[in-house]
Design brief:
Helix content: 25-40%
CATH class: Alpha Beta
Largest sheet: 7 strands, mixed
CATH architecture: 3-Layer(aba) Sandwich
Distance between the termini: 25 Å
Radius of gyration: 17 Å
Number of domains: 1
CATH topology: Rossmann fold
Strand order of the largest sheet: 1-9-8-5-4-2-3
Strand content: 15-25%
Order of helices and strands: HEHEHEEHEEEHEEE
Number of helices: 5
Amino acid sequence: MEGAMPHSTIPDATGLCRPFQDPVGDASRMFRAILTAMSHPGRIVTAFGPADFPGTIGTTGFGAALTLLDTDTPVFLSPRIGDARTVANLRFHCGCPVVENPQTAAFAIMSLAEADVILPSLPIGTPDYPDKSATAIILVDGFTNEDSVRLTGPGIFKYKTLGMKAPREFWASLRENSDRYPLGFDTLFIAEGEIVALPRSTKIDPTVTVEEC
């Protein structure tokens, strides 16, 4: 899997970025990376994106958007993410509707600083249709060995820990989300060149810090 690519210093005059060089092959590889992350919650998975990308979402965020978004997936962009260039590129390359209300979104892309405000508004499905829920794509600076939370659930042998600089209240919010299972939203954390997934089925203990096994 390729690592993150540097940002092109000469943007297209129209504001549109160049997508994957190999649209089918690159999107397939990125999709496999996302599936691997979803199948192994808490695992840091190498990911990538185009060399030219909107600055608010980064290369890996743009790669995930090109892979996951289409005409049937309304997306909400947080204030820090949804500048004109990002909106134009997602509409042009993905064909996705960009919605103003997170309650109507299939995907929501946001910074970690905005997550506490946006996550409570995301669709969590219904008892009859738990799949009518959203996926939160949260852009983070990276993953660390500090401030780890303990993860258990499907796809995890015994337990796993995840290190990421985030407020304790944020982890508590995700724990409340997992308590709703099978309702709830899924979460995909994206750093440059790396992704981590936390499906709604993953149990999170925001009070226990343990060393990585």
